[in-house]
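Whiteboard transcription, Tuesday session. T.W. wrote the C-alpha cells on the left side:
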C-alpha cells in the first residue's frame, strides 16, 4: 500500500511485508490509476466537477467487533461493508478504500492470503479499489481500520440533521438479525432451528450494505444514517441533530422469519432487536408525499423499505405499540466506553 512501512522489528519466520503487499494487496488497486500500484507515499484523487467527496472510517478489533477465530475472509469483507453502509446512508456511491492493519506477530501467510481474498471479493462486488494504507505488527489483538471514499452530487448528501417534523421514519431490510446472531454465536437461542440460527449468524458475520438504496434516496429523503449501534440510540442521534422527537412503532418493525421466531419464543429478545446494533441498515426520514417513489425504489432494488415511525416536535425517542402505549426499552444501543464492562462484542 502507499507508504506501507514496518513500525516494529522483524519477527523471525514472519511473512515478508513488502512481498505480501505486492502479491496480495497491490492487485486490488489496479482499477484506480491514482493508487500508483501502491508503490508511492500517497494516492492521488481527482473529484469530478459537481461532485462532493464523502469519507468515512471504522475500526474493528478482535474480541470487540468480531471473534478472533472468525474466518479471515469474512472479517475482511465485514470491515469493508460496515464502512460502505455509512456511505450508503449518505446517498454516496463508493469507489475507493484505504486500509490500516495491525496484525498480531503470530499471523501467518495462510491467514493473510485468506484475508486478502475477502478484500478482493468485495472490491469486485462493490466496484471499489484499494488505494493505500499501512500495515504494522503488534503484540496486541488484530486491529483493523478502513477508510471508504464515496461521491454524491454537490451539497446533496443525506445528513442526520435534515429531518423535518411530520417526516415518516423508514428502515431498509430487517432489524435485529445480527444482534440475535451474536447471541446464537455465543450459544444462546437454543430453541431455534439450525436453519434459523444459521441465518442469524450469517447476518452477524456478513452485513449487507445497502449501496443501491442510498443514491436512490437523494431527492426523496430529508435525513439519513445507518443503524450500527442500536436502532433506538441511532434514531435518537437523528432526532437530536434535527431538533425533533421521534416515535417508533414496535409493531411496524421489519423482522425476518428467524427473528420473529426468536421473539415469539422469548419476548426479552425485543431488547436485543431494538438496541443490539450491527444491523447496517439505512435509517432515513422522508415526507409522506414521497412514499410512492420510495416503494418504487424498493421494488427496483429488491430491498424492503418500511415505515417504522414519525418525526415530530419535541425531543427524545418514544417507543410505542400499535395502540400508542409506551413500550419500555431496556437497552437503547451500544456505547463503546460506558458499555465496555457489560458487553464483549458489538458493532
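and on the right, the sequence the group agreed on:
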Amino acid at each position: 500500500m502507499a507508504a506501507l512501512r514496518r513500525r516494529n522489528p522483524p519477527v523471525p519466520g514472519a511473512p515478508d511485508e513488502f512481498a505480501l503487499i505486492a502479491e496480495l494487496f497491490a492487485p486490488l488497486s489496479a482499477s484506480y490509476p491514482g493508487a500508483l500500484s501502491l508503490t508511492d507515499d500517497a494516492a492521488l484523487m481527482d473529484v469530478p466537477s459537481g461532485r462532493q467527496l464523502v469519507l468515512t472510517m471504522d475500526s474493528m478489533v478482535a474480541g470487540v467487533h468480531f471473534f478472533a477465530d472468525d474466518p479471515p475472509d469474512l472479517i475482511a469483507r465485514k470491515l469493508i461493508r460496515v464502512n460502505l453502509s455509512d456511505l450508503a446512508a449518505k446517498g454516496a456511491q463508493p469507489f475507493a478504500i484505504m486500509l490500516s492493519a495491525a496484525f498480531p506477530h503470530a499471523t501467518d501467510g495462510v491467514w493473510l492470503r485468506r484475508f486478502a481474498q475477502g478484500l478482493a471479493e468485495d472490491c469486485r462486488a462493490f466496484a471499489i479499489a484499494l488505494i493505500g494504507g499501512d500495515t504494522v505488527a503488534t503484540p496486541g489483538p488484530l486491529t483493523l481500520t478502513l477508510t471508504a471514499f464515496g461521491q454524491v452530487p454537490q451539497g446533496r448528501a443525506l445528513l442526520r440533521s435534515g429531518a423535518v417534523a411530520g417526516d415518516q421514519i423508514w428502515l431498509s431490510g430487517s432489524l435485529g438479525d445480527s444482534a440475535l446472531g451474536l447471541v446464537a454465536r455465543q450459544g444462546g437461542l437454543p430453541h431455534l432451528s439450525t436453519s434459523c440460527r444459521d441465518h442469524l449468524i450469517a447476518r452477524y458475520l456478513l452485513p449487507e450494505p445497502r449501496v443501491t438504496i442510498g443514491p436512490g434516496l437523494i431527492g426523496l429523503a430529508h435525513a439519513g444514517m445507518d443503524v450500527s449501534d442500536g436502532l433506538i440510540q441511532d434514531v435518537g442521534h437523528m432526532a437530536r441533530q434535527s431538533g425533533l422527537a421521534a416515535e417508533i412503532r414496535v409493531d411496524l418493525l421489519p423482522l425476518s422469519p428467524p427473528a420473529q421466531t426468536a421473539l415469539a419464543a422469548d419476548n426479552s429478545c425485543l431488547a436485543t432487536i431494538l438496541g443490539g446494533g450491527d444491523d447496517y441498515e439505512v435509517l432515513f426520514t422522508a415526507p409522506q408525499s414521497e412514499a410512492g417513489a420510495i416503494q418504487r425504489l424498493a421494488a427496483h432494488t429488491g430491498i424492503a423499505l418500511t415505515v417504522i415511525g414519525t418525526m415530530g416536535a419535541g425531543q427524545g425517542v418514544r417507543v410505542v405499540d400499535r395502540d400508542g402505549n409506551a413500550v419500555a426499552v431496556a437497552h437503547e444501543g451500544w456505547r463503546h466506553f460506558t458499555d465496555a464492562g457489560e458487553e464483549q462484542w458489538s458493532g
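Someone added at the bottom: Residues 36 and 340 are 41 Å apart (CA to CA).
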